[in-house]
Every structure is written in C-alpha cells, then in structure tokens.
Write a structure and sequence with these properties.
CATH architecture of the largest domain: 2-Layer Sandwich
CATH class of the largest domain: Alpha Beta
Largest sheet: 5 strands, parallel
Strand order of the largest sheet: 2-1-3-4-5
Radius of gyration: 54 Å
Number of helices: 16
CATH superfamily of the largest domain: Histidine kinase-like ATPase, C-terminal domain
C-alpha cells in the first residue's frame, strides 16, 4: 500500500484501558501510516475537549467508556464532529456492535485482539479516504440540493408506487405542501382530473423509461388558477436498468398562456367584428331583396288610388272649362242687361239656359263633391301607403332601441305585403291588448315581413283553387309579448323543420329566396332582442311561427341580473 502521497495524520485514540492503549500505540508506531501526532484520552468528555482544541483526521474509539456506553458514544461524537473519520474498536465478543456502529456513521471497525499492524494500517487509511469521499459526496449533494431548491418551478421525485419522495421549495411555496409521503396527484388536494394527468405521465415514464409531458391547469395555495407544462424523466433505476423513480418538473407557463389567450381573444374579437359587419351586410341584402320582391305590389297599391285621382282631375278639368264658359255667358248677360232694356232679358237668358242644359251643368255641379271626395280618399290612401313604408323601414333611421307596439308594426307590414298576399290568401288579425316593448322597430318589422311573405308564398306554392288563410295573433304572456303567424299551407317536412333557421337553407325554387330570411330573423329575435322564435308544422295542414319578445329593455334586464348576483335589488 503506497501511502507516500498521504498527508501526515493526527490520530485521537479514545480508550480507558491502559493495556489496550499501549497495544494501540505499539501497532501505530509499527505501521506505515504517515503519523503527525497521536493523542490518547480515556473518556468522552476528554475526547470532546481534545477535538475542540485540535484538528484530528481520525478517531480510534472504544465505545465502552466511563462516562458513555455503546452507540451513544459514537452518536454524540458524530453529532458534534461529523467531519472526523471514526473507527470503532470493539471487544472480541461484541463484533455485532461494530456492524451497528458502521450503520450509525462509523467508517469501519476493529475487533480487539484480532488486528495487527497491516490491518490497522489498512483500516485507518481507507477510513480517512472514505471520509474524504463521503464529505465530497455530501458537499456535492449539498450543491445539487441548493441548485434544485433555487429552481423556481415546482419539482417532485416520484417512486414506482407514485409516492412523492422529494420536492423542492417552489413546490411548497406554490402549493402550500411538500407532498412528501403522499401520492403525486395528492400534492395539491382537490385538483381531480388535472392531477390524474400528472399521474399518467409519471406512470408512462416509469413504464417505458422515456420522457413525457403534458399541460395542466392547477390552483395554487391561494386558489388562483395557474398553468403548468409538466415533464417527467427517469431519476433512478434498479440494477436491471428499470426505472424506480421519476423526476417531474412543472414549468409555470401562466404568463405565456394568458398572453396566448389574450392574443386568441383579440383574434376572435376581430373575427367577431368582421362577422357582425358581414351580418349587417346580409341583413341589408335580405331587406333589399324583400323590398325588391314587394316593389311591384307596392307600386300597384299606389297606382290604383293615383290612377283614379288622375282620372278625376282630368274630368274636373273638362268640367271646370264648361263652368268657366258658362260664367263667361253670365258675364255677357250681366253687361247686356245693364246696357239694354229690361224687355230684352228673355232673349239674352235663352242661350245661357240652352248652354246649361247642353253642357249638363247641373249634373256637373252635383258630381263635383263626389269627385273631390274620391280624390281626397285616393290621396289619403297614397299617404297611408307611404307612411307605412316609412314605418316599416325604420331600420334605417336608428340603431337604438325604442318603445314600440307590435300591433302597429304588424299593420304596417301587412300594408307593405298586401300585394304578395291578396291574390292567394285572406289575412285574419286577432290583435290582443298588449303593452309596448323596447325593441328595434325596423328589425322587428323585417321579421314580421319575412314570416308573412313566407306564409303567402307557401300557400301560393300549392296552386289550389280555394284561397288560403293567414292568421296573425298577438297576446301578452308573463313578461313577454307573443306574436303567432299561422298559415294553412303545405307545411314543412320534419327533416327540413330542424334546418329552417340555418343560413342559406331554403325549400323555395331558385330565384324565390336567398335562404337567409329565417336565419336573420332568428338572429334578430334571439341574439339581438333576447327573445324566442319557434316553428310548429304538419304536412298538408300548415305552419305556425311563434315569436316571443321580452317586455323589458335588454340593458335593464342585464342590470337586474347583475344586481341579483351581487345581492342588490332595484327599487320598483
């Protein structure tokens, strides 16, 4: 054994027996150990004092001392001086104590009467070197532990039974518990399904020895939801190379996830804005299509009263000319009577009377009142049509909600749709006593127009001899105003009924519809007015559309809902 490179040793011998001390001194002196100093003490207290005064490399320790006995001696010295190598010297009949001493921290043991110079040389040398290695290992372990503790992401070591056997400070800080001794999914109690995902990747790595990862959302100690990217890798293996423990690291990606969510929110917000613009264009297109579809009918409705007003005024013009001619004759009569004798009067009156009879002036005078009354009625009808068109098109006037009576809206809609209805169906209105609602009048009118025209077109599609019937009812129910529009047309097939509110779905022939009318109506009633629209239909018996509109304005209902959630109620 080459000990030339070993530094000189300071040895402390703790032995109360003088004979054993002499034997130990003789063996050490005869060894090849590089000795610097050998000190002998007889009890534990003196050993403590000697260690406090000087630096020793190794203790040769008898466990049975006057002031200490058994492993307590070793434990006391190990507690205060862990850096010093220790070799226990036991009696010949107590070798078991040597094994226990090594387990308690001693580097080796010697049995009295069973060792010689070579044995003590070997034991002392290897004990000192082993202690150095242990200290180096302890130092490395300390550095590694400090490094792991400095990592701000939670880390846990999980054994093959999924028990947490180690965790770092970040785990304790974030989740309020180190989790050691518990199952990995119990580290943060109550996280349920999310922690089952953690268990899965740990089990996967234990099973195949490969790294695995997953993203989970977990609540920290304060209940705040945080996002983590968890990865597992093998930490320990058995002698066959099978994984016996995995290390799991949970990287906090909360800020990144929030940024991603915010970016996604902004993207969706922009998409929503574009969709709303597109929807607005679609609504306008559908409205223009509806107005274009009804333009001929409206023109016909206006042309009839305008026609007889024009005819009446042409007749009135002719009559007025005749009356003016008669007035001219009366004027000449007036002048002649003033200039002639009274006896010539009958001769002057005769042509006037003849003109009056020939031109039927008396009949004209009687008919003037009728002509003017008919003309006034025609002008009133034109005015009514124009006003109803203005009421119907209130969608262009404002985007705000306003008080509105849907009975009035239905009446205006029926005027606009009259020409689409009158050739095929009769309209029966059963308007109830209903309160005004807060709504967008123009949009609601557009819904009614879509439903009424659809009903008329459904009846027309049957090409039947008898006229159809469209029944419109309104009535209040609880906090809603209800409008029912029912026809006795062909009905809607069950497979189509589920799709009537889908965009671009239509059962009409090409050119008869865009497929957007009912989809837009659904959006107006349900999304914009928080109401309801439903359809019931039976083949060959007809279709019933029911629209329910809330009485309260949407903003007020939202405020009431928030107040209810916060425990605040508005005064009635």
């Amino acid at each position: 054994m080459n000990l030339a490179s070993t530094k000189p040793l300071n040895i402390l011998v703790v032995e109360d027996d003088a004979i054993d001390c002499a034997g130990m001194q003789r063996l050490l002196a005869g060894s090849s150990l590089p000795l610097h100093d050998v000190v002998f003490v007889g009890d534990l207290n003196k050993a403590m004092a000697a260690l406090a005064d000087g630096a020793f490399d190794i203790l040769l320790l008898d466990l049975n001392l006057p002031d200490s006995d058994g492993l307590d001696t070793l434990i006391a010295l190990e507690a205060d001086y862990p850096d010093v190598a220790k070799v226990v010297v036991t009696g010949a009949d107590d070798e078991e104590l040597g094994f226990r001493a090594v387990a308690a921290g001693a580097q080796d043991y010697l049995v009295k009467g069973r060792f010689n110079v070579d044995a003590i040389t070997r034991v002392v040398h290897y004990s000192v070197e082993r202690k150095k290695l242990e200290e180096a290992l302890r130092h490395s372990r300390g550095k590694l532990n400090a490094m792991l503790e400095s990592i701000r992401d939670p880390m846990v070591m999980i054994d093959k039974d999924l028990n947490v056997v180690w965790s770092n400070e970040a785990t304790r800080e974030i989740f309020g518990d180190d989790g050691i001794g518990g199952r990995c999914h119990q580290t943060c109690d109550g996280r349920g399904a999310a922690y089952r995902a953690l268990s899965c990747i740990a089990m996967q790595t234990l099973g195949d020895g490969q790294p695995h990862s997953c993203d989970v959302a977990l609540a920290d100690e304060g209940g705040l939801l945080r996002f983590f990217h968890c990865t597992t890798s093998v930490a320990l293996r058995d002698k066959e190379g099978n994984p016996t423990a995995v290390m799991e690291i949970a990287g906090d990606i909360t800020d990144r996830r929030i940024a991603e969510k915010y970016s996604e929110f902004k993207r969706l917000e922009a998409a929503d804005h574009k969709l709303k613009e597109l929807q607005s264009h679609l609504i306008q297109s559908e409205k223009l299509a509806s107005i274009g579809q009804l333009a001929a009918g409206v023109a016909h409705e206006m042309n009839t009263p305008i026609g007889f007003v024009a005819c009446n005024f042409e007749t009135l013009g002719k009559h007025v000319k005749k009356i003016l001619a008669l007035i001219d004759l009366y004027t000449e009569l007036e002048r002649a009577v003033e200039a002639a004798d009274a006896a010539g009067g009958p001769a002057l009156v005769a042509p006037i009377r003849q003109f009056r009879e020939t031109m039927r002036i008396d009949a004209i005078l009687k008919n003037l009142d009728v002509l003017f009354e008919d003309s006034r009625e025609g002008l009133e009808r034109v005015t009514e049509i124009i006003q109803n068109l203005r009421d119907f098109s209130r969608v262009d006037q404002s985007s705000d909600f306003a008080r509105y009576n849907i009975n009035e809206g239905l009446a205006a809609t029926l005027v606009v749709a009259r020409n689409a209805i009158k050739y095929n169906a009769d309209v029966v209105t059963e308007f109830g006593e209903i309160p005004e609602i807060f709504c967008h009048p123009g949009q609601i009118n557009q819904v009614f127009l879509n439903l009424v025209v659809n009903a008329a077109q459904a009846i027309e599609s049957q090409e039947r001899q008898e006229r159809g019937r469209i029944t419109i009812r309104t009535y209040p129910v609880d906090s809603y105003v209800v409008c029912e529009i029912e026809d006795d047309g062909p009905g809607i097939a069950p497979e189509d009924r589920r799709k009537v509110f889908d965009p671009f779905f239509t059962t009409k022939p090409a050119g008869k519809g865009t497929g957007m009318g009912l989809s837009i109506s659904y959006d107006i009633i349900v999304n914009k007015h928080k109401g309801r629209i439903s359809v019931e239909s039976e083949i060959d018996r007809g279709t019933l559309f029911t629209v329910r509109l809330p009485l309260q304005p949407i903003k007020k209902r939202d405020e009431d809902s928030r107040n209810l959630l916060t425990g605040v109620t508005a005064d009635e």
